[in-house]
Amino acid sequence: MSFAMDLLLLATSWAHVLLAPYTKVEESFNLHATHDVLMYGVGRNNLHKFDHNTFSGAVPRTFIGSILLAWLTSPVAYVASQWGLLSTKLDLQLAGLILSQHSAHNVLTFLIVRLVLATLNATGLMLVRRAVCRRFGRPTGLMYVLLMCSQFHLPFWMGRTLPNMFALFPVNLAFYALYDRAPQSQYPARRSADVAFALLTFTAVVLRSEVVLLLAPLAIQALLLRRISFMRLIKIGFLSGMLSIVLSVTVDSYMWNQWPLWPEMYGVYFNVYQGKSSDWGTSPVHAYFLSHLPKLLLGSLPLAVLGAMSDNRVRVLMYPPVLFIALISCLGHKEWRFIIYVVPLFNIAAARGAWWMVSRRKGGLFGRMMFLAAMGILALNCAITIVSTCASMANYPGGSALVTFNDQYADQHAVHVHISNLAAQTGASLFLQSHSPPYIPSMSAPATNDWVYNKTESLSPRDLTTSSPLTHLIAESSVEFTRTGRWKLVDSVQGFSRWQWNLPRGGIAKVLEVPLHQWLSVLEMETNDQLYILERVK
Ligand SMILES: *[C@@H]1O[C@H](CO)[C@@H](O)[C@H](O)[C@H]1NC(C)=O
């Protein structure tokens, strides 16, 4: 049973990676950092080749998550390549099935990077699951897993290289250390509390500074409930804080060639103190509670309220995350990913609420209605997740375009292709530039590997056309190029545009006449041409 629950968590995280393999611009710093560490290593001689030298982003970010991910990926990629050689490149074909045959070389590594991260975060959730089973009983553990897997955001993102998804793992380890205890026990083991606060301090210092706002209420609660002494907390925080600062400053100053650099502190200075994050837009104070949290949690939100009402242990568990959201609501710029860490805790509360409802199924009409309502919430979660996943699968036209392109010209030499901004932002990552070095040492390179993938920004159609070395374009429009007579349109790539209700006219009565098997087509996805593949006319 425990094994099945863990497998479900893992399978969900892998399914999202394989269904929507490409990545977007938010993920690209860490993805490209991981790519560069994998391909070039971290030696001084190759640092100038790293992508962040050209595309540095608004603020420097830490390399530590990416370096660790690359180091974890490389033995897996090595084993995969050896195993592939033995079994007639089955692994490449696996990547080929999902993406494409010719792009498979680097693409396999890319999939492994994402699968490794997904597995890591799934492991964090499995540990929390163990804690839930121990403290609240197995049925609540099962509800926790079902709610977790039926949601969209966290499972979809946990295999994506956002800095927040690197932070999610140590935060979940800390939750495990704090909450894995006997049903009625008040205190975590002393050692566990130490580990939890050390991990949270490390995460806040090195990976994501907003975690400090979660650390503070957890620490205050631990002090009030006498789970840790004040002196001990100060000692742990100071020690792990200092070590983390030294680690981040050493590694990141070296990688960015800027001394001294502590990226998270720089981020706080830039975004909070100088207020630059407001340039990205501000949201009202209540946005986290009224808009982001419902989106992240779906049906878990009402269930969590029920869980908190029905069990005092849940209330105690929920004060820190609720306080965290209240604190972070004071910052003007709000994004769902800043509060992603509390989703597992809310799901624990929701699982308790769901089990309260489900366990009443034998108690008469009210009980049966409670049972049905709980099942209905789960079904609704699944429906929303399926719709969101379908839209997301079609939402990476840049990735699809580049893979199509690689396939189409796989045998051609000296291709010089320009990748437009939209393409670069919607999936055309370095990993997909498969006909151009670098290659991971343990993987074989494809036959044609002399291409140039050109991402130079803000070039006009004129720049791209006259006296330029480009042979192909992946562009955002086609007419401006084709009408010059110098380019011909080869292919166009579709992307998600919107959902369209396909309801029959004539009111509710007509809707009810729709035969059951046609219900699936009531909601239809609309796509439109978003990118064009063009070839220079010779
Ligand atoms: C990319 O294309 C631009 C515009 O044609 C050109 O000036 C530049 O040299 C190209 N970059 C590389 C690396 O070839």
Structure description:
The structure is a single chain. The protein has helices at 2-19, 25-40, 64-86, 90-98, 104-136, 138-150, 153-157, 163-179, 190-207, 212-224, 230-256, 263-273, 287-297, 300-310, 312-328, 343-358, 364-393, 397-408, 421-425, 461-465, 479-482, 507-513; strands at 416-419, 452-454, 472-475, 487-501, 523-536. It has a 5-stranded mixed beta sheet. With 538 residues, it is α/β, with parallel strands linked by helices. The radius of gyration is 25 Å and the shape is globular. The chain has 3 domains: 21-114, no CATH class; 115-393, no CATH class; 397-536, no CATH class. The longest helix is centred in the N-terminal third of the chain and has 33 residues, at 104-136. The termini are far apart. Helix 19 links the parallel strand 1 and strand 2. 2-acetamido-2-deoxy-beta-D-glucopyranose is lined by residues 418, 452, 454, 456, 459, 463, 468-470.
